[in-house]
Amino acid sequence: MKVEAKFLLFLAAFGAVVALLFWAVGLAPNYRTITGGGTIMLVAVGLLGLLPGGYYLWWSRRMTPRAEDDPEATPEQGAGVVGTFPSTSIWPFVLGVAAALVGLALVFGFWTATVGLTLAISAIIGVVVESRRGGIH
Amino acid sequence: MTVLAERPPAVGRPEEPEHEHGPTGLLKWITSTDHKVIGMSYMITSLVFFCLAGIMAVIMRTQLTSPDNTIVSQHAFNELFTMHGSLMLYLFAGPFAFGGLANYIVPLQVGAPDMAFPRLNALSYWLYLMGGVTMVSGFLTVGGAADFGWVAYAPLSNAINSPGSGSDMWIVALLLTGFSAIFTGVNIVATVFYLRAPGMTMFRVPIFTWNMVVTGILILIAFPVLTAALILLWCDRHIGSHIYSVAGGGVPVLWQNLFWFFGHPEVYILALPYFGMVTEVLPVFSRKPVFGYRGMIFATISIGALSTAVWAHHMFTTGVVLLPFFSLMSYLIAVPTGIKFFNWIGTMWRGSISFTTPMLFAIGFLVVFLFGGVTGIFLASPPVDFATHDTYFVVAHFHEVLFGSAVFGGFAGLYYWYPKMTGRMVRESLGKASFWFMFVGFWVTFMPQYLLGLHGMPRRIAEYPSTYGWTGLNRISTVGAYLLFISVAIILVNFYVSWRRPVPATANPWDAHTLEWAASSPPVHHNFTWLPPVRSERPVWDFNHPDHLSVDHHQEHGRRELVGAGVAAGGAPPSGEDWPDGSDS
Questions:
Q1: B28 to chain A: which residues are within 8 Å by CB?
Q2: pLDDT at B15 over 50
Q3: How far is A95 from chain B (nearest CA, A)?
Q4: Phi-psi region of B91 (alpha: psi -120 to 50; beta: other; left: phi over 0)
Q5: CA distances from B87 to A47, B129, B145 (A)
Q6: Surface of A (87-116) touching B: CB under 8 A
C-alpha cells in the first residue's frame, strides 16, 4: 500500500509546486492574464492526490501486511475468499435509464425527471434489498 | 445469488470451472455485472460509434473533394464535424480504452475475479450508452445536432448563436458519459489497489494496467471540471446566468479555461491506455521483456502529471494566457514521451520480432505517433501556433496523435487480445491487409492536410474557392479517407469471418507474458482456475520458460534478485551465471 500512497502523494506535491509556480508567474505585471481559475484547479489537483494519498500512507503503517505487497508471496497466501461480488442485477440498467431521463429534463422539461426519479428511487431500493438478499435468482 | 469469489490455491491442475447459472441471451447483456460482459458491451458500442463517426468523416472529405461543392449544406457540415469529433473523442477513443479493453483486461492482468465494484461498473456502461444515444439523437431534432464544434466555445454555444434542443442534448450526453467515465476511473483504481494477486506488487503490475491507473486518476481530475463547466453552460443557455457572456459581466474565455483543463488531460486519457496496449504488444512479439519497465512507469506518471498543467496551449491565440509557462510545460511533456519511445525501440532492439497483425499495428502506432508528437512540439511554440492555429496543420497534427494512438494502438490491442476475449483467432491475411490499407490510407489522408494548413486553409470550412490552389491536396486527402474506410471494412469482415468460421485459440496463443494469459480463452466466470506464482512482471512467461526467468525489479541488499527461486521446476535457485542477458530467448 506504500507505493500507492507515494504515487498519490507525488501527484499532491506536483499539484502544489505547479500551482505555486503558475500563481507566481501570473503576478508578473507584463501579462494580461486570468490565472485565478487555473490556480484553483491546480490546487485541486494537489488535493486530489493529498487526501487519498495521505490516508493510504496513514493506513499503510497500521494495516496487516498484504500478500499483494509482498514480493515473496505464494499463491497459497492469497487463496480463499477474495470478497463478495454481486451476481447479475437489473438495477444498474434501471438506474442508468433513470439518470438519462433526469438528465433529459434539462432539454425537454421537468416531466421526464418525474419518471426518472421514480425509476431511480426504485433502483436504489432494489439495489439495497438485493444486497441484503443476494441477487435476482 | 451473491457470489463469494474465491482465489484458487496454487499452481497445479486446472480445476473444473465455476459454473454460472445466470440468465442468457439479451437478459444476460442487460443484467450482467461480469467485467468481461460489460467490457465487451463497451467495445461493441464504441466500435459502432467509431464507424458512425468514420462515415461522417468520409462524407466531409467527399464534400471537400472539389471547390464550392454542395453535397452537404454549410449547416449540415457544421453538425458533421461537431458530431465526428464528439463521437470519436467522447464516445469511441476514451470508452473503447478505459471502458472496453481496460474493463476486460485490467482485472485479468492483476489476477482479480472481477472489478472492485461490479454493479457500479454496469451502471457506467448504461450511463455511457444512454449518453451516446442522447448525443446521436440530436440529429432527429428540428434544429439538428449540436453544431458548435466538439469544444463548444462560448459565446458560439449560447442560446442565441446555437439555439435548439440538439445542443442541449449534446450537453446532457456529456454529463451522462462524464459520470460514466468518473465511475469507471474509480473502479479501475480501486481494482488495481485492492484486488491484486499475491506477489503482484505495484512494480510487477503490467504496463497496460499501470497506464490505466494513471488514466483513472486523470479522469478523476478532468471530468468533474467538464461536468461543472457544462452545468454552467446550461445555466447560461436557459436560466439567464451570464457566466460566459460579456454582456452580463461574465468571461467567455473562462469556458476555454475550464474546457481545456478537462480537454488536455482528456487527450492523455485517450492516449495513455493505447501507449499501454502497445507496450504489451511490443515485448511479446519481440520475445523480450519490456525495456526499462520502471522508466516506462515513471514516464507515464510524468506525462499524466504534466498534462494537468498545459491546458492553455490550446488558447495561445486568445492573448490572455501565460505563454512562457504553458509553452515550457508543453515542451516538458516531450521528455517522458521521448523516454517511452526510447524504451519501445529498446524493447524491439535485437529482439526476435514476428510481424503479426498486432505487432504491425503497434509499429504503425510508433511511426504515426512520432510524427504527431513532433508536430506537437512545433505547436507548443507560440509563434508557430499563432501562424498555424485553426488551420489544417492543427487538424493533421491531432489526427496523427489521436488516430495514431486510438486507432493504430487500439487495433493493436484489439487484435492482440481478441483470442483471449473470444476464444478465436482472427485471420492473419485479412489482418495484414487491413493494416496496410490503414497505414497507407493514413498518410495519404493527413500529410496533404499539413501542407493545406501551411497554405492557409482554415479548419471547419465546408467550401473553398477554386482560386486558392487547395484542390489537388484536398483530392489526395479524400482518396486517403476512402482507403481508411476500406481498411475498417476489412477489419469488420475479419471479425465476421472469425465469428462464422471459428479457428479456436488456446489459452496463450502468442506465448505472452502477463497474467491474463493464464486464464482460459475466453476466461471463465471469476476468471482464474489457477494462478502461477508472481515473481516478476512476466509471471506467465516465467512459468512457461523456467530456463529464461525474468530479472525482477525488486532490489534487495544492493543487488538484483533473480526471480523465481522457488518457481523453477527443479526447485534449486539458478545461479548468477544464468541471468538472462536481456535478449532472453
A1: 88
A2: no
A3: 7
A4: alpha
A5: 32, 12, 12
A6: 87-93, 95-97, 99-100, 103-104, 106-108
Q: Which three cell numbers stand for residue B161?
A: 448563436
- Strand B3-7 and strand A80-85: the pairing is antiparallel
Size of interface A-B (CB pairs under 8 A): 225
* Predicted TM-score (pTM) of this structure: 0.91
For the record, the C-alpha cell of B188 comes out as: 479501475
Contact of B367 with B324, CB cutoff 8 Å: no
Provide the CB-side half-sphere exposure for B343 (13 A, CA): 25
Give the pLDDT band (50/70/90) at residue B12: very low
Q: Which of A42, A45, A100 sits opposite B134 (nearest CB)?
A: A100
Which domains occur in chain B, in start order?
A: 30-518 (1.20.210.10)
Give the closest of B22, B129, B172 to A87, CB-based. Answer: B22
Q: Which residue of B has its CA nearest to A100?
A: B130
DSSP letters of B78-143?
A: HHHHHHHHHIIIIIIIHIIIIIIIHHHHHHHHHT-SS-SSHHHHHHHHHHHHHHHHHHHHGGGSTT
Grid coordinates representing A118 are: 421514480
Q: Are B86 and B150 in contact (CB under 8 A)?
A: yes
Mean pLDDT of all residues in A23-36: 71
Cα three-residue angle B546-B415-B183, rounded to 5 degrees: 95
Contact A74 B566 (CB under 8 A): yes
Biggest alpha carbon–alpha carbon distance for chain A: 69
Q: Hey, what's the cell of B395?
A: 487538424
- Pull the grid cell for residue B487: 481498411
Interatomic CA distance for residues B51 and B565, integer angstroms: 50
CA A17 to chain B, closest CA, distance in angstroms equals 11
- Please indicate whether, in this complex, the C-beta atoms of A38 and B8 are within 8 angstroms of each other: no
Contact at CB, A34 and B28, closer than 8 angstroms: no
Cα–Cα distance for residue pair A129/B14, rounded to 1 Å: 36
Q: Chain B residues with CB inside 8 Å of A26's CB?
A: 322
Give one DSSP letter per residue of B339-370, joined into a string. Answer: HHHHHHHHHHTT------HHHHHHHHHHHHHH
Lowest mean pLDDT among B181-195, B305-319, B553-567: B553-567
pLDDT at position B20: 54
ipTM above 0.90, yes or no: yes
Residue B153 dihedral angles phi and psi, to the nearest 5° = -60, 140
Contacts of A93 in chain B (CB under 8 A): 30-31, 122, 126
How many Å lie between the alpha carbon of B548 and the closest alpha carbon of chain A? 19
Q: Is A136 on the interface with B (CB under 8 A)?
A: yes
Residue B475 above 60 pLDDT? Answer: yes
- What share of residues in chain B are helix, strand, coil (percent, to 5)? 65, 5, 30
DSSP 8-state assignment for residue A135: S
Cell numbers given for B192 = 488495481
| Nearest beta carbon to residue B202 from set A4, A72, A137 | A4
* Nearest of B340, B257, B124, B165 to residue A105 by alpha carbon: B165
CA distance A120 to A101: 10
Residues of chain A positioned with their CB less than 8 A from the CB of B238: 106
Answer whether A80 touches B (CB < 8 Å): yes
Higher pLDDT, A28 or B92: B92
Which residues does B74 contact at the CB level (< 8 Å), separation at least 6? B462, B463
Q: Are B113 and B107 in contact, with CB atoms under 8 Å apart?
A: yes
Spatial distance between the Cα atoms of A26 and A33, rounded to a whole number of angstroms? 7
DSSP string, B519-583: S-SS-BTTB-S------SS-HHHHHH-GGGPPEEEEEETTEEEES-TTTSTT-SPPPGGG---SS
Alpha-carbon distance B192 to nearest alpha carbon in chain A (angstroms): 10
Residue B564, chain A, CB below 8 Å: the answer is: no
CA of B377 vs chain A CAs: smallest distance (Å): 21
